[in-house]
C-alpha cells in the first residue's frame, strides 16, 4: 500500500508521496514520485500498485518519448494519453500471466504538470484499465493508495484559493493522518511543487526526524482543541455535574 496525493490550487500544483514499501514482514523505502521530461518542461507521475507494472510502463513511456523523430509532448492531455497508451501495452503483455499467478493487474497513477501549450497546470487520475479523470475545481485534489485516513482534512480545509504555503501544511497533515493509522504508509515523504508564478519545479524529501516540530505541534494542538470544544449539548445529559473537564 502507499499514499500519494496531488493538489491543484490557483498557486499551482503539489505532489506528495510516502516512501514506505512493505512486502510481507519486510519494510524498505523507495521513491514513488518520478519526474518525466526535461528541464522545466516536465510532469510528475505518482503510482500505487504493482511495482513491476509501474516500472515497465514508465520505461515504455521514456522509450517512446526518446524515439528519433518523436513529437514532443506539449500538453498534459498528450502526456496522460502517452502514459495510458504505455499502460495498455503493458496490460496486453503481462495481465494474463499476472492473473495466472493470482496477481491482479493493478496500477493507479496521478499524472500532473503544465507543459508548453497548457493554459494552466492540471492533473489526471489514471485507472488500471487506462481510463482517467481530471482534477475538478470543486475537489482540488486526487489521491491514491490508503486514501481513507487522509481524506477528511482535505475535504474540510482545502479550497482552490488556498495559498500554497497553507496547502503544503494540509498535504502534510493528510499524509500524517494516513501514516498514523496505516502501517503501510510511512516516511520518507517526497514533495514536489510547481508554482504558477515562475512555472518552476521544486523537489524535497523529508524523513521522520525532519518533521518532529510539526508532528508534536499538531498532536498537542489537536488535543487542546478537543478540550476547548463547547461542552453542550451532551455534557449536561451524559456526565455527572462535577465531571466536567477542568481544563
TrEMBL record:
<dbReference type="Pfam" id="PF00227">
    <property type="entry name" value="Proteasome"/>
</dbReference>
<protein>
    <submittedName>
        <fullName>Peptidase</fullName>
    </submittedName>
</protein>
<dbReference type="InterPro" id="IPR029055">
    <property type="entry name" value="Ntn_hydrolases_N"/>
</dbReference>
<dbReference type="InterPro" id="IPR016545">
    <property type="entry name" value="UCP009120_prtse"/>
</dbReference>
<dbReference type="InterPro" id="IPR001353">
    <property type="entry name" value="Proteasome_sua/b"/>
</dbReference>
Amino acid at each position: 500500500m502507499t499514499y500519494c496525493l496531488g493538489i491543484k490550487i490557483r498557486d499551482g500544483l503539489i505532489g506528495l508521496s510516502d516512501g514506505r514499501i512493505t512486502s510481507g514482514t519486510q519494510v524498505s523505502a523507495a521513491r514513488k514520485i518520478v519526474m518525466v521530461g526535461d528541464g522545466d518542461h516536465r510532469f510528475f507521475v505518482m503510482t500505487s500498485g504493482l511495482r513491476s507494472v509501474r516500472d515497465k510502463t514508465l520505461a515504455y513511456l521514456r522509450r517512446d518519448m526518446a524515439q528519433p523523430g518523436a513529437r514532443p509532448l506539449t500538453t498534459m492531455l498528450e502526456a496522460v494519453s502517452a502514459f495510458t497508451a504505455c499502460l495498455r501495452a503493458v496490460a496486453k503483455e503481462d495481465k494474463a500471466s499476472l492473473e495466472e499467478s493470482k496477481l491482479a493487474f493493478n496500477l493507479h497513477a496521478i499524472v500532473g504538470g503544465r507543459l508548453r501549450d497548457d493554459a494552466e497546470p492540471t492533473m489526471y487520475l489514471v485507472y488500471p484499465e487506462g481510463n482517467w479523470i481530471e482534477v475538478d475545481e470543486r475537489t482540488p485534489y486526487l489521491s491514491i493508495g490508503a486514501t481513507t485516513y487522509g481524506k477528511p482534512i482535505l475535504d474540510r480545509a482545502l479550497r482552490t484559493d488556498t495559498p500554497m504555503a497553507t496547502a503544503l501544511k494540509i498535504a502534510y497533515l493528510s499524509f500524517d493522518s494516513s501514516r498514523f493509522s496505516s502501517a503501510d504508509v510511512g516516511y520518507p515523504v517526497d514533495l514536489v511543487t510547481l508554482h504558477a508564478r515562475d512555472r518552476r519545479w521544486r523537489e524535497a524529501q523529508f524523513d521522520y526526524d525532519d518533521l518532529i516540530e510539526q508532528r508534536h505541534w499538531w498532536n498537542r494542538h489537536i488535543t487542546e482543541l478537543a478540550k476547548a470544544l463547547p461542552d453542550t449539548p451532551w455534557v449536561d445529559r451524559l456526565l455527572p455535574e462535577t465531571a466536567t473537564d477542568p481544563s
